[in-house]
């Protein structure tokens, strides 16, 4: 395939990005030669003038992190630039990279000595810069599912997470809170976009953290009556907590 697309690097990177999950699953353990090739083309793609190619590079990096979380710990300045990219899917994929970095390092820290090579505070700040109200719902919808597991390791994110969840459209919120099956699909329809997990956030989130954030939200806003949004989220938090005890 590489030889066939030798003169069209953008197309080759697009192929790698859209099939990387299948490629890595079939490989099992990634050989060094394949790893180096994926890493090389992903990094080259990140500086492309094409937003779709930059998104493709981010997608490859996000999948490589699943196999080795140290793959991008020394590239925080580049991630900072990507976090402010003008194309929504580059920022969405960067959010996934940041989330997976923190989750992987948090898990490693529980099993081994704490790795001081990763600046957790910097990464959290990048996440907060991307994941906030007022930006495209495409990113927020992806983030509400992708960041759910991270809330267990970084409970301070629960407040921002709840704020987004309360202000997102009802259709997206109810979809995110669904736990009766995992729905995977695009957030917009187009030949150059990726598919994402769109449901099941309560299956992985920090139920206690969400409940506490809800309580603080109600108190801080001095609400006399809670909204349907509050009740939907509280019900999901209680249901997911019961399943863990």
Molecular structure report:
The chain is globular, with a radius of gyration of 19 Å. Helix 1 (9-27) runs antiparallel to helix 2. A two-stranded antiparallel ribbon has the order 1-2. 37% of the residues are buried. It is mainly alpha-helical and 245 residues long. It has two domains: 1-130, Serine Threonine Protein Phosphatase 5, Tetratricopeptide repeat (Alpha Horseshoe), CATH 1.25.40; 134-245, no CATH class. It has helices spanning 9-27, 32-45, 51-67, 76-83, 88-111, 120-130, 137-146, 158-167, 170-177, 207-220, 228-242; strands at residues 184-185, 196-197.
Task: Please render the helix and strand layout as text.
Elements: H1 9-27, H2 32-45, H3 51-67, H4 76-83, H5 88-111, H6 120-130, H7 137-146, H8 158-167, H9 170-177, E1 184-185, E2 196-197, H10 207-220, H11 228-242
Enumerate how many helices there are, as a single number: 11
Helical content class? 55-70%
Query: Biggest sheet: strands side by side, in what order?
Result: 1-2
Order of helices and strands: HHHHHHHHHEEHH
Cα-to-Cα separation, first versus last residue: 50 Å
Strand proportion = under 5%
The main pleated sheet reads as:
2 strands, antiparallel
The count of domains is 2
Assembly classification = single chain
Overall body shape:
globular
**Judging by the overall fold, what is the CATH architecture of the largest domain?**
Alpha Horseshoe
The rounded Rg comes to: 19 Å
State the low-pLDDT regions, or none.
none
- On the 0-100 scale, what is the average pLDDT? 87
Instruction: Please state the structural category.
Output: mainly alpha
């Amino acid at each position: 395939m590489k030889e066939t697309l030798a003169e069209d690097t953008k197309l080759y990177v697009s192929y790698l990005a859209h099939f990387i999950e299948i490629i890595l699953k079939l490989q099992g353990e990634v050989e060094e030669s394949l790893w180096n090739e994926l890493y090389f083309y992903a990094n080259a793609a990140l500086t492309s003038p094409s937003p779709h190619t930059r998104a493709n590079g981010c997608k490859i990096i996000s999948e490589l992190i699943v196999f080795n979380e140290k793959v991008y710990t020394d590239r925080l300045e580049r991630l900072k630039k990507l976090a402010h990219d003008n194309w929504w899917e580059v920022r969405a994929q960067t959010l996934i990279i940041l989330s997976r970095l923190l989750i992987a390092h948090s898990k490693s820290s529980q099993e081994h000595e704490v790795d001081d090579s990763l600046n957790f505070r910097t990464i959290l700040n990048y996440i907060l810069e991307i994941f906030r109200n007022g930006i495209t719902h495409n990113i927020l919808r992806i983030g509400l599912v992708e960041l759910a597991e991270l809330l267990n390791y970084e409970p301070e994110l629960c407040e921002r997470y709840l704020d987004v969840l309360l202000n997102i459209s009802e259709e997206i919120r109810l979809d995110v809170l669904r736990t009766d099956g995992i729905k995977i699909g695009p957030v917009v329809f187009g030949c150059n976009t990726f598919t994402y997990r769109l449901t099941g956030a309560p299956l992985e989130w920090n139920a206690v953290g969400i409940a506490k954030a809800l309580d603080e939200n109600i108190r801080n806003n001095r609400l006399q009556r809670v909204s349907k949004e509050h009740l939907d989220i509280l019900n999901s938090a209680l249901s997911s907590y019961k399943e863990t005890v």
